[in-house]
Design goal:
Helix content: 10-25%
Protein name: L-lactate dehydrogenase complex protein LldG
CATH topology: Rossmann fold
Organism: Nonomuraea jiangxiensis
CATH class: Alpha Beta
Order of helices and strands: HHEHEEEEHEEHEEEE
CATH architecture: 3-Layer(aba) Sandwich
Length: 185
């Protein structure tokens, strides 16, 4: 018997015959937020991301300005025309999102239409994400309720960053160094 099997056997014997106990869980599933868009934009900005809150009619112009001169990946299902590139030559990626969380400034991709693959969203140094105002929810439990747990989920809270042992912040280690978010109202 391996050490793992021995430990699990001991645990099994220790709890044998114990009564099932229901643990009440009273998690907060919603949060009252007066202005989801403003809170989300503030939180995204706190993460050192670039954020624009624009009327829907101004979004195409902002996208064109943001991607000018960049070789961009545009995933299937993203409503955009132009000269676009593949992962090996890309400077950046442009996506939609599945949901966004105001309280945490988090963007969630479920890699559905317009959201690309994980590699497409994590390899390029620049990520431009377009978030519709109706995709913003107040808190994480609300976001989870909107998501399909069988889909691959990528949770993005700002540009990729980490700190070394001396607490020096290094960006772009595990994903895009620059995150730009356009919130379409």
């Amino acid at each position: 018997m391996s050490a793992r099997e021995e430990i699990l056997a001991r645990i099994g014997r220790a709890v044998a015959g114990a009564a099932d106990v229901e643990i009440p869980r009273h998690y907060r599933t919603t949060q009252q937020v007066d202005d989801l868009v403003t809170l989300f934009a503030e939180r995204v900005d706190d993460y050192r991301a670039i954020v624009h809150v624009l009327p829907e009619a101004e979004v195409p112009g902002r996208i064109a300005e943001s991607v000018a001169g960049r070789r961009m990946i545009v995933p299937d299902g993203f409503d955009r025309e132009g000269g676009w590139t593949d992962l090996n030559t890309a400077d950046g990626v442009i996506t939609n999102c599945a949901v966004a969380v105001a309280e945490t400034g988090t963007i969630v991709l479920d890699h559905g239409p317009g959201q690309g693959t994980r590699a497409q969203t994590l390899v390029p140094d620049y990520h431009l994400c377009v978030v519709r105002a109706d995709q913003i929810v107040s808190c994480v439990p609300e976001a989870i309720a909107r998501l399909d747990p069988s889909r691959p989920l990528t949770w993005i809270s700002g540009p990729s960053a980490t700190s070394d042992i001396e607490l020096n912040r290094v960006e772009g280690v595990h994903g895009p160094r620059t995150l730009e978010v356009i919130v379409s109202t």
